[in-house]
Task: inverse folding
């Protein structure tokens, strides 16, 4: 089981490293994107199958769907 625990730790480390590199802040129409629920300013980006991108709030996980990717701030 030590192997599995080690793998989880490695994944956690990799996720943390990715978060450290990418602040996850965006601007749409020149306005900083903020979460309508918790007013967070950091998002994780993923493609949306209907086109554009999803930005998932890193604090509360609310998802915003943009038809065109906002600029990275
Ligand atoms: Zn939020």
Result:
């Amino acid at each position: 089981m030590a192997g599995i625990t080690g793998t989880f730790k490695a994944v956690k480390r990799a996720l943390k490293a990715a978060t450290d590199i990418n602040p996850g802040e965006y601007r749409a129409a020149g306005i900083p994107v903020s979460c309508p629920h918790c007013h967070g300013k950091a998002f994780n980006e993923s493609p949306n199958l209907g086109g554009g991108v999803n930005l998932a709030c890193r604090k509360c996980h609310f998802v915003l769907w943009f038809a065109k990717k906002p600029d990275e701030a």
In short: The longest strand covers residues 43-47. Residues 35, 37-38, 40, 57, 59-60, 62 surround zinc ion (CB under 6 Å).
